[in-house]
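so my prof wants the structure for this chain in the tokens format not the other one, which i didnt know existed until like an hour ago. anyway here's the sequence
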Amino acid sequence: MKKFLALVSLILAVFFFVSCASDDDDLTDSDSAAGKSCETSSDCPIGSICDLGKKLCVNEPTDTGDTDPSDPTTDPTTDPTTDPTAEPTAEPTDPTTDPTTDPTTDPTTDPTTPAPAACEISNTFKVSAYKDGEHYLFSGSGIVSDGNGTPTVTKEGTHTSLYTEDISSYNPEMTASFITLNSVQGENAVVVNTLIYDEVTKKPAYQVETVVWNDYLQDTEAGETAAYTPDVRITSIENHFADDGTTIDAQKICIVAYSVISPAENEGDPELAEGRFQYCNGDNGTMNIGQTVKFGIDAKITSDPEVIQALFNVAGPEDLCWCQPYKTGATCD
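here's what i got, hopefully its the right format
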């Protein structure tokens, strides 16, 4: 399987969420206003409905009370010519043409046959199999966003859990997760992201990225649980502010944890990240932008700097860091 060994930032979502976090006390609420992307009205905030043509939340129309009263003379329920005691006449059923008795009826096309069960993420992804050690857990759904734009926060009910030696007091209420489609190492991939905010400054402090290449989607059927997981990378975020003390000009980003990679069992076999993984495609069977998809990710991770340096083939911890400027001339010095 492909490894995510590039020392680059995949998206600028860290920057986009800075203003969102500082202006909104509820970091997990993506339904604060109309205009939000949606698939159905259930994706919209209270008082809004989904415009299916535009796939945007709009304000629900208000009943003005100007509707005309019903005309009882045209209401079939009050038609004096209707005899409520009369029973509808029906021709007797011809058993030779009755599909319920026709031996040639194909049960696979019988409308009474139950539809296949919808793809769902297993409830076992609510608790990590590695909960007693370093781990990352994600279980939820969301609309796939363009990695080059402002992402859409995952839907209500998304569950995350994280523990590393550096991040021992993880608060899910101080996070925002989103799913994006990015170009990663020259190939399109879906990325499951979780941003973790500092409880005091309300600025991003860590980011978790799980890169799901097509290989993972092709090797595992939707709805099935794989006995491995795509690589998970956790980075720390050190914010560098402009002279006003509030605008972030640049961020120093360092890899502080990574998936535990199991050695190949046989020569020629791929090295896989320890964990388990499940996914569900969107309604059209893809993970294209605009589709609502689901993921279950349970990854065993390590924050051992020597292990991570060996994985990336670098000499020291500073080689796992880079500067992400958001303004010309900005540095992380």
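also thought this was worth mentioning. The helical segments are 13-23, 214-219, 305-312.
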